[in-house]
Amino acid sequence: xxxxxxxxxxxxxxxxxxxxxxxxxxxxxxxxxxxxxxxxxxxxxxxxxxxxxxxxxxxxxxxxxxxxxxxxxxxxxxxxxxxxxxxxxxxxxxxxxxxxxxxxxxxxxxxxxxxxxxxxxxxxxxxxxxxxxxxxxxxxxxxxxxxxxxxxxxxxxxxxxxxxxxxxxxxxxxxxxxxxxxxxxxxxxxxxxxxxxxxxxxxxxxxxxxxxxxxxxxxxxxxxxxxxxxxxxxxxxxxxxxxxxxxxxxxxxxxxxxxxxxxxxxxxxxxxxxxxxxxxxxxxxxxxxxxxxxxxxxxxxxxxxxxxxxxxxxxxxxxxxxxxxxxxxxxxxxxxxxxxxxxxxxxxxxxxxxxxxxxxxxxxxxxxxxx
Length: 371
Description:
This protein is of the alpha+beta class. It is 37% helix and 12% strand.
């Protein structure tokens, strides 16, 4: 038997269990979002990405997941932490985007689960959707009044910014929905200007073909024109968020707490560890086909950008990969060697039968400046 329950009580439960923001939307189809997804997919802006693009109708229609759904309860959990840069040239480090440094979704799930448990205790049904193809979580957050769309397409929570993971609860309980936030970014274009690949083609529109956060996850060839600006990023990209003025508020709040270093990973380790170890350590990341060779691809690009050419270990690793049985990895090792001015390591590669290798040998690569 269902009993009445107040939205304010659910909000308190969520906040008491770690949520940073809470809102409610009607469980109706996101008609405008569906049109946008279809249009951008037709334009190729999704770059083959499946997340929410695989089945746009499903990801914008809550009733396809819960036919009798009445409400969407949306929660946000902050993942901001103070960052400090550190670089040891003897062991090049690859930066990891903040959202991927810890399993923040599990912390989000704790808050949403507490809310769902309370609903179920009153006789209502619930389904929790977190990082799921079944729902466009940003639109759910917008409809629930949690924040507005920034020009980098992220949801910005008033006075706190975009350093948040989002999730929802579908329920057959009916609640009065919140009003979408009316705030906006005004004339600010800092995120657009900061994007190293100009992936933000217009306010709120991202060309995934150019977005570094997607390119490091894509199974396709990493475009040569974007390899240099990848810099030391091994996974994800925070550039558009780093410059956002709204995000500075969250940084000021968190800077008063315990400082923690920016998480980095050893490029050497990624290039030296076996498949099982890599998947065990980094399996929470989106890795194409869960194949570690793509992690190694990214690591070779980062090594080419930040490695020390004079390092015996750098040269040893490159020589090893230039002899790899995997032609894709051989080809990226060619690029890294050329980038570091180590073309002497490529002797004999002109006889390699791989088209990928021959393409990289013919490619013009700007050498990294000597440190």
